[in-house]
Design goal:
Layout: H1 2-10, E1 22-27, H2 33-38, E2 44-48, H3 63-76, E3 82-85, H4 99-106, H5 117-123, H6 125-138, E4 144-148, H7 154-174, E5 182-187, H8 190-193, H9 196-202, E6 205-208, H10 210-218, H11 236-251, E7 255-258, H12 269-274, E8 279-282, H13 287-296, H14 299-311, H15 315-329
Parallel strand pairs: 1-2, 1-8, 2-3, 3-4, 4-5, 5-6, 6-7
Bound molecules: phosphoenolpyruvate and magnesium ion (MG).
Length: 331
């Protein structure tokens, strides 16, 4: 089994009908990059940078400390792309005992709908620019991409672009080296999934955060056990939004990935490939089983089955039944 997994790791990730599928890793700290490589990932699709900010007794990492962490991840991936998400603080990832910001969070009635992710960053412009400078500086050491969590509003997009431009200007003025970075948006709010032309106009790539997209589409707190049975990735509304984002991005020739839990769950691999997805980012431990699915997938066949499954009242049952019939025919 170990030998088989080892062979699998070095095998290119290509479907039966010759479609390359990019398998990337989600990491939380620079040290995780080694696991990503070990698992055969061809890059980091999601570096959750907020983990550098958490569990620190209120003191936050300054620009240099962040830069060193990002550079460590970039160097560890030796030339492979590293997608660094700006802090996704708030809601399920609170800061500990953090001065005034923390107070604001504690008093939020609905933290998941409150000042989190890019909203939090834009409310702390100095800290946001500091993080952007740290990320830009790491780009001098490898291929860096910047990913913005929870965007939905045009004003947020424009403010983000402005912050990035200022960070670039500050580095340039100080003579500090950096290179071009691609800018991406996480699609986590239904409003963003439904206004793709706006996002595609401003961003180089998109990454679908299904964990939050499910939460916000179904109005189910992803951390609340009492409603966990209603947290359903197979809900037709969720699947329609995901299919729309993939189709719009592909149509615009911009890269689209899924980096939520669905990406690492083999129950969804065929469906996502059928929707036209060619990039998935997941925990390194899930990579080999997803790759096995990719190697056995026929995307041309799968693409034909997506429409009927999405249109049905019970997509999970419809999808499984179609694939079961196909498996029997091919036996
Ligand atoms: C997501 O929401 O799917 C995602 C990848 O981000 P996080 O789980 O860190 O909120
Ligand atoms: Mg999220």
């Amino acid at each position: 089994e170990r030998a088989r997994l080892h062979r699998l790791r070095h095998m290119p990730s290509v479907t039966l009908d010759g479609q390359p599928v990019e398998l990337l890793a989600n990491i939380e700290l620079p040290g995780d990059a080694a696991n990503a490589l070990e698992a055969g990932a061809v890059g980091v699709g999601l570096f959750r940078s907020e983990f550098l900010f958490m569990n620190r007794n209120g003191e936050l990492p300054d620009e240099d400390e962040q830069f060193e962490a990002y550079r460590a991840a970039v160097l560890a991936m030796s030339g492979l792309p590293v997608t660094i998400r700006t802090v996704d603080i708030g809601a399920d990832k609170p800061l500990d005992r953090m001065a005034v910001h923390e107070l604001r969070h504690e008093h939020a009635l609905n933290p998941a709908l409150g000042l989190r992710a890019i909203r939090w960053s834009l409310s702390e412009p100095a800290m946001f620019r500091q993080q952007l400078r740290a990320i830009l500086r790491a780009s001098a050491y490898g291929k860096v991409r910047v990913l913005i969590p929870m965007v939905a509003h045009r004003s947020e997009i424009l403010a983000t672009l402005d912050a990035l431009e200022r960070a670039r200007q500050q580095l340039q003025d100080a003579g500090i080296p950096f290179t071009d970075v691609e800018l991406g948006a996480m699609i986590e709010i239904p409003a963003a999934a439904m206004t793709m032309p706006l996002l595609l106009q401003h961003f180089d790539f998109v990454s679908i955060g299904t964990n939050d997209l499910i939460q916000y589409t179904l109005a189910i707190d992803r951390a609340d056990e009492a409603v966990a049975h209603l947290y359903d990735p197979w809900h037709p509304a969720v699947l329609q939004l995901i299919a729309n984002v993939i189709a719009m991005a592909n149509g615009a020739g911009k890269s689209v990935s899924v980096c939520g839990e669905m990406a690492g769950d083999v129950a969804f691999t065929d469906l996502l490939l059928g929707m036209g997805l060619r990039s998935l980012s997941m925990h390194p431990s899930q990579l080999s089983s997803v790759k096995q699915r990719v190697l056995r997938a026929d995307t041309a066949r799968l693409a034909k089955e997506v429409g009927p499954a999405l249109a049905s009242a019970d997509p999970a049952a419809t999808w499984l039944a179609m694939n079961e019939r196909w498996a029997q025919r091919s036996r």
